[in-house]
Amino acid sequence: MCWNARLNYCHNIGKSELSAWPMLLWISLILATVKSTKKEVIDTSGGCGASFAIEIVSAQFEGKRLLERHRMVNAALVEEMKEIHALSIKKALTPDQWKQQQESEKSQSTAQDASS
Description:
alpha+beta; GMP Synthetase, Chain A, domain 3; 3 strands; 21% strand; BolA-like family protein; 2 iron, 2 sulfur cluster binding
């Protein structure tokens, strides 16, 4: 089914008729080839499986620029990209970057709680 046909199907028949779960699961499994320590795949299409956002953490990203990381993810999902309308890579981080980000968010949250 092409993108437009899939989108029209979603809008005409209803989101509950076409589930994104098989594609979510498939994308998650494929991303395992990037040897991620954390991955989150989010259906941003409202349930019809045409658009996804990804957050991924992998040691394989060490020493690579953001563009190279995105290319790695896109290469892993080359066949799936033929079936979906949009893919947004929200985060492509190394484990150290992820840890720093989590610590920063935690300290910001603690600071906000202290000021309240």
